[in-house]
């Protein structure tokens, strides 16, 4: 009896340590929901700057929520995390896409394929496709009279399958939320495998980047991320070749996932490159009736439009030009140096002797951050590929990039426009600062460990 009484204060103290983080987590959840509720109206009234002003603090609150979720009782915290996540996604589904009309092209491509027509053959505005036009989808397609589709074959398979269930934006967004559910499941499985609290999934579920870019704008990057995560799970649990096939499917949704293959490849393994090449060939085979046009708008204007061919929107090259001016051939030199940087980094990852799941995920996270830095995409949804690693690795650089990407929501349509070079400088400057902070903290930890051992 005396022992149980003496243990009572200790039990109460431990319970308090868990209850307080749970209550704080609930408070942050309420704030994020409240901010999300007003975001559509703030956007309609004040424009994209209001959207940015609300979503970036929401991202910072998610960072705080992740720390609290690790210290809260797991069962209660998961109910809270998923409850808020469902409310958030259900709400933003009520509104038409805000910052992108890409989803209308997805529905159109599915419709064109269902009619037995190669989506790489005609512009949407081509008179040959006039019989497919309607008032709900066709008027919203961007570049309808200048560009055939840009999306690779696995994305096209997905568009065809989903539009057989319904040729509208809502069905497409629900299908992409299904992809997101796969991603969330795999994040939790990998968290368990790496002995980290599964409540860290809040870093993904409450983060404004996937919330708005998948549930509202409905970007096919959700499929890319789901296939990437599935391939990683398969590969990191002992079936590397099968995993490589699934990751290649991911690359054939959007090529940003390509560096992930380096994280599961081992030097001198010739089977995996052959499997990747065969998978690409088989996926493109149904569309080869158009010949080289199968690459779509990617080689017919997109690289120029996005400032890549001219180097205008490659952040590091832009900074170089600000200091040293333009030089003939600087884009080719930059691309060559960037390719070498990615190649040697990828080879270093492949040759690493540390092949645990946790170290592999950290290496892949680093590769993807380097890819994003060198390519410096113009749109926030291109950064969705880093979101699973925000939960899995939780590194400061990943958080800096995922939150900073929201700055790219800036549009030219509004009066007050932040130049892209400024937005990207804040975004990637934050990445460098986060990397420096991480290196400093690791050094301090080594010094502390060295002192303790003495």
From TrEMBL:
Residues passing through the membrane, by range: 20-43, 49-65, 77-95, 171-191, 220-238, 244-265, 272-290, 331-350, 357-375, 381-409, 421-440
Keywords: Membrane, Transmembrane, Transmembrane helix
Pfam families: MptA_B_family (PF26314)
Domain of life: Bacteria
Protein name: DUF2029 domain-containing protein
Lineage: Bacteria, Pseudomonadati, Pseudomonadota, Alphaproteobacteria, Hyphomicrobiales
């Amino acid at each position: 009896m005396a022992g149980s009484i003496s243990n009572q204060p200790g039990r109460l103290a431990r319970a308090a340590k868990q209850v307080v983080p749970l209550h704080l987590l609930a408070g942050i959840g309420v704030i994020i929901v409240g901010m999300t509720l007003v975001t559509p109206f703030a956007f309609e009234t004040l424009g994209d700057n209001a959207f940015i002003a609300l979503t970036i603090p929401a991202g910072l609150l998610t960072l705080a929520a992740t720390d609290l979720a690790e210290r809260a009782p797991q069962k209660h915290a998961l109910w809270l995390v998923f409850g808020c996540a469902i409310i958030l996604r259900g709400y933003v589904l009520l509104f038409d896409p805000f910052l992108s009309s890409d989803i209308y092209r997805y529905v159109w491509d599915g419709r064109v394929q269902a009619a037995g027509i190669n989506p790489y053959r005609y512009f949407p505005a081509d008179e040959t496709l006039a019989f497919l036009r309607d008032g709900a989808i066709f008027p919203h397609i961007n570049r309808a009279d200048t560009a055939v589709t840009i999306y690779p074959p696995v994305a096209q398979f997905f568009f065809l399958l989903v539009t057989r269930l319904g040729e509208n934006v809502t069905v497409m967004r629900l299908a992409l939320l299904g992809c997101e559910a796969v991603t969330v499941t795999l994040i939790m499985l990998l968290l368990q495998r790496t002995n980290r609290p599964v409540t860290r999934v809040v870093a993904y579920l409450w983060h404004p980047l996937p919330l708005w870019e998948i549930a509202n704008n409905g970007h096919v990057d959700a499929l890319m991320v789901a296939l990437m995560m599935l391939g990683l799970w398969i590969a990191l649990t002992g079936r590397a070749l099968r995993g490589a096939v699934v990751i290649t499917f991911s690359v054939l949704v959007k090529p940003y996932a390509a560096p992930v293959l380096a994280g599961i490849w081992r030097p001198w393994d010739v089977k995996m490159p052959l499997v990747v090449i065969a998978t690409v060939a088989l996926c493109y085979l149904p569309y080869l009736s158009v010949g080289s046009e199968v690459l779509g708008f990617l080689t017919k204007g997109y690289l120029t439009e996005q400032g890549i061919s001219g180097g205008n929107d490659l952040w590091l090259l832009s900074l170089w030009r600000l200091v040293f001016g333009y030089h003939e051939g600087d884009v080719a030199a930059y691309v060559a140096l960037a390719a070498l940087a990615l190649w040697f980094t990828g080879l270093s990852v492949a040759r690493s002797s540390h092949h645990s799941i946790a170290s592999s995920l950290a290496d892949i996270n680093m590769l993807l951050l380097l890819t994003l830095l060198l390519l410096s995409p113009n749109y926030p949804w291109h950064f969705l590929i880093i979101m699973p690693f925000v939960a899995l690795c939780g590194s400061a650089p990943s958080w800096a990039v995922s939150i900073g990407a929201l700055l790219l929501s800036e549009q030219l349509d509004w009066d007050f426009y932040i130049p892209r070079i400024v937005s990207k400088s804040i975004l990637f400057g934050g990445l460098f600062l986060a990397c420096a902070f991480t290196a400093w903290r690791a050094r301090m930890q080594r010094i502390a460990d060295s002192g303790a051992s003495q």
